[in-house]
Design a protein that fits this description.
The chain is mainly β. It folds into two domains: about 350 residues, YVTN repeat-like/Quinoprotein amine dehydrogenase (Methylamine Dehydrogenase, Chain H); about 80 residues, Immunoglobulin-like (Sandwich), CATH 2.60.40. It has one helix and 45 strands. Strands 1, 35, 36, 37 and 38 form a five-stranded antiparallel sheet that branches. Strand 6 and strand 7 form a beta hairpin. The relative contact order is 0.11.
Length: about 475
């Protein structure tokens, strides 16, 4: 389970402008082993793409009818594989951790007899499950890597036997609290989502205090103290998902206002203020992901931004559009992988196809209603991909803008290209892959944005 990224997989990330997919012909639901129409026997709560495979977790007896896939499984693109025998209760979340995979949930053991004791969090090395200390006294709902350490959030008050109010960090040997953690109404306090934005840890969930600081459902931690993002949500609000894109931090859940701004369950933070995403949704938004250079949202809604959309939709920066005829049920998780968007939850159909709680949208997003197919768009080609020291940018078609700038995944601007780069009907420029102090950019995915409208026009993949 070495965390290597193949050259072929990286090259798939090159931005092109393919024809948009038709309404429902992109849904695929053949998740049996071998494929034949089966998915997961019950609800899928977590999906993560790690090392070229899709990890699915939830509360199910099997995935695709495959033995040993109790509550957790790995999809290779062709078949489900067990993680030994699975675990004994629900799995909510995953993250890569060195060469291994960490899963969090509400389990206490691996599923084989007699089972490895793992209290709500465990590590799988490709062969065996291992505990992380003595774990937690309540469920783990979110995990992320921050400052080279594993961060966990959920509904626990103890981690490794010590006090840790709903948040804890694992340093490789022991659990530690994140200051005073978060708190709120007994029985209702929880952390649902974690993200890293501008070097700080962002926490989302249902709470009223972070380190003693009043803030509803949202907070940031810098390693020393907590801060708010303009005081968080309305008093009854809850964050279910956080997602970082070049243009800012997105928060989604069940709320009517955020930072004092009216927002129907989804909003964007640009570092200074919150902004709503259109008219919002009529039900909770439970998952966010980036796919085909757009923001995708999933949840339990029937309309979003005034448009009819069955539980899944995408945002192009100014308007929401449905993803085909959507999902017949509730979406709990989204994960892009190898040119497809995987959708998990509790549902019986995707588009016009029967589905058991997991489905896959293949290829580009559909044409938004009212858009004329074939409308000319700027095309930006970037080569080579992946790159090491420099790339060549070639653009054609309508002007891409008055200029281009390079940003990292958190949205931080790194480089401004020459003023004429990206303007005119065609042209090219060379980009040196170095940060502002002249150091080589580390391996990762970077984004080229138009200086005119801040839209993302392309990706640069650096592999060293």
């Amino acid at each position: 389970m070495r965390r290597a990224i193949s050259h072929a997989a990286l090259c798939c990330a090159l931005l092109t402008t393919p024809a948009r997919a038709a309404a429902d012909d992109a849904w695929w639901t053949g998740f049996a082993s071998p494929p034949g129409g089966e998915g997961c026997e019950n609800t899928v709560f977590g999906l993560s793409a790690i090392d070229g495979s899709l990890y699915a977790g939830g509360i199910f007896q099997n995935a695709g009818g495959e033995a040993g896939t109790r509550n957790v499984a790995r999809w290779t693109g062709a078949a489900w594989l067990p993680l030994k025998a699975g675990v004994r209760n629900v799995v909510h979340c995953f993250t890569g951790y060195g060469p291994d995979v960490v899963a969090g949930g509400n389990f206490d053991k691996s599923a084989e007899f007699p089972g490895v004791a793992m209290e709500r969090i465990g590590r799988f090395d490709g062969v065996e499950w291992y505990p992380l200390g003595s774990g937690m006294n309540g469920e783990v709902r979110a995990v992320v890597i921050w400052n080279s350490e594993l961060i966990a959030g959920g509904r626990f008050t103890l981690a490794g036997g010590g006090s840790a109010n709903y948040l804890a960090r694992w340093d490789g040997a022991a659990w530690h609290p994140l200051g005073a953690g978060v708190s709120g109404v007994a029985g209702e306090t929880k952390v649902n989502a974690l993200a890293v934005w501008n070097g700080r840890l962002v926490i989302g969930g249902s709470f009223d205090l972070a380190g003693g600081l009043a803030t509803r459902g949202l907070a940031v931690w810098d390693g020393v103290s907590y801060d708010t993002l303009n005081e968080g949500l309305d008093p009854a609000g809850e964050v279910h998902a956080l997602h970082v894109r070049p243009e800012g931090l997105y928060a989604a859940g069940a709320f009517s206002t955020i930072g004092g701004v009216p927002a129907g369950n989804c909003a964007r933070w640009d570092g200074t203020a919150w902004a709503s995403l259109g008219a919002g949704s009529d039900g909770a938004v439970r998952a966010l992901a980036s796919y085909d250079d757009a923001l995708v949202a999933g949840g339990s809604f029937t309309t979003i931004g005034g448009a009819a959309a069955a539980s899944v939709a995408w945002w192009n920066g100014s308007a929401w559009s449905p993803l085909g005829s959507g999902i017949a049920g509730v979406v709990q998780a989204l994960a892009p992988l190898d040119g497809s968007l995987y959708v998990g939850g509790s549902f019986t159909a995707a588009g016009e196809s029967e589905a058991k709680n997991i489905a896959r949208w293949i290829g580009p997003l559909p044409i938004p209603a009212g858009t004329t197919p074939g409308t000319p768009r700027a095309t930006l080609r970037i080569s080579p991909q992946p790159a090491r020291d420099r790339v060549t940018l070639r653009w054609s078609g309508p002007a891409a803008g008055s200029g281009l700038s390079l940003h990292d995944a958190s949205g931080r601007a790194l480089l401004d290209l020459p003023p004429n780069a990206g303007s005119g009907s065609s042209g090219q420029a060379e980009l040196q892959l170095r940060d502002p102090d002249g150091s080589p950019l580390p391996s990762g995915v970077y984004y080229l944005r138009s200086d005119r409208d801040r839209s993302v026009l392309g990706r640069v993949i650096v592999l060293r």
